[in-house]
Amino acid sequence: MAQEKFSLRCYCYLDRMQPQYAAFVGTITQGDLPTEGMASLYVEMAPGNEAFRMVDIAVKATEARPGAQLVEREFGMFEVHSINQAAVKEAGQAVLDRLGLTVQDRIKPKIASQQIITNVDPYQAQLLNRFRKGSMLVPGETMLVMEVAPAAYINLACNEAEKKASIKVMHVSSVGRFGRMWLAGSEAEIVTASEAATQALNALDGIEG
Fold it and tell me: Which residue from 116, 132, 134, 184 puts its CA 20 to 30 A from 23's CA?
């Protein structure tokens, strides 16, 4: 069987993890726990098994520590973080150098869907709260649902939304074909969060996936 061609699906740097986002990641990560203020790097690739080799390169290069190392059906993904931004950037550069790639070789993110749901009904809020891992959705609040491809870019969208708006992080999923997030708050703050997330994603360069 011919070897599958390597694809740098996502290369996503977060300069400063926001309080809620960092707390949420801490509830789902199986590796080193991140804290507010740390820098973080998400790298997603295909074939997925390459994630094991890439993590090894990243953590040997600097003091950055791995928080996630996941290989699923189609893709692999890892995350490293540190309070030292330079260490995270250096870890990422070590991976790119070993691959013979640049940041511009990543796939440019696309927003697959985005919905703002106002005045959420109490019954819908109850259903959503059963599946969320972060803050609870209160009936009457406004909710933002965003879906992004490649999946790992949703982490940047969530972190940037929290920087610019007073919202609650309900849920973030960054594994699979699409990344998804649920945010809650007032209608005005959710609109601001949506704009911030969209702007951050659109500002990234890369190749068309």
Answer: 116
